[in-house]
Amino acid sequence: MSNKTVxxxxxxxxxxxxxxxxxxxxxxxxxxxxxxxxxxRFDILGSVSNHVVGGAGWFVMPVLHxxxxxxxxxxxxxxxxxxxAWYFKGDADYLFLEPAAGVKWNFHILExxxxxxxxxxxxxxxxxxxxxxxxxxxxxxxxxxxxxGVDLRVELGYRHVGRAGAQIGVSFPF
Length: 174
Description:
By secondary structure, this protein is mainly beta. Helices cover 12% and strands 59% of the residues.
């Protein structure tokens, strides 16, 4: 990803988060002994990089609402969904589909901020590119609560055929 693209992505994230940052009360909630019920989510992400435009959709289901570590406000999710990407360069253009599943370990740092790490695996299907291969790797990202019923999601992940490493989107708890 070029330096210019990284700058534009960071500028967009900062602009989107400004309203929430101004009204945010900084009260760390990372240490917690309370049992919580986490919401299911539907997340939509997009990405643009050198010769690639794509996106992803994820149905996120909490599996361990109170996580692994006692006294820490964490949780563990299962994600089902996938990626779609259009690769174009010169005379070549291909469509890539990747149904995938993954797991995500969340760390609820503030009321407005959740950081996560995880891993995904899927099957890349290249339409017009004769690609049919397994795929997988690690991810890291954040959820930033923007308002009632919507969160910003920013994610960095492994790069692969037809997919950029950084994605930004929205998350809808339900």
